[in-house]
Design goal:
Helices cover 40% and strands 27% of the residues. It has five helices and five strands. α1 runs antiparallel to α3, α2 runs parallel beside α4 and α4 crosses α5. The termini are far apart.
Length: 142
């Protein structure tokens, strides 16, 4: 029913678009997310409408899974992912991402955050881009 389960699920972000984002720009964002979901390091990915409580202000959601930390590293640095973020992020008004995994390693969250920090250090313009989202929250665990 669910297909192959991923060992590490990088994130399940919920988001909404900035006011004034055109339908064409929204379509470009969703297309960029779909391209990112198809990179070799992703086990699965999907993007579409958010089915949560509308009063929370989210309209869409994205989910992608990877098999392990090595795949996550490749996913985070894949050129398709990096380029896509420069289409996606400037159009987001609100973002909330939850990361979770079936791997019960208590140090996993720290390892993932270290990878994120290394990516920000390698691509400071990418880090600044993320900081430009007006309402952003990424849950990384303990």
């Amino acid at each position: 029913m669910f297909g192959r389960l991923a060992r590490v699920v990088r994130a399940r972000p919920r988001f909404s678009f900035r006011e004034g984002t055109t339908e064409e720009e929204k379509a470009d964002v969703l297309a960029a997310m779909r391209r990112t979901a198809t990179v070799d390091s992703a086990s699965f990915g999907t993007v579409g409408q958010d089915l949560g409580d509308p009063s929370e202000g989210f309209t869409h959601a994205y989910a992608a899974g990877v098999e392990d930390l090595a795949a996550l590293e490749r996913y985070m640095h894949d050129p398709v992912h990096l380029e896509g973020d420069f289409t996606i992020v400037p159009r987001l008004a609100k973002l909330s991402a939850v990361r979770f995994s079936d791997d019960l390693d208590p140090g996993l969250s720290g390892k993932i955050m270290a990878m994120h920090s290394a990516k920000v250090a390698k691509y400071p313009e990418w880090g600044q881009l993320l900081d430009s989202i007006p309402q952003a929250r990424i849950t990384t665990g303990p």
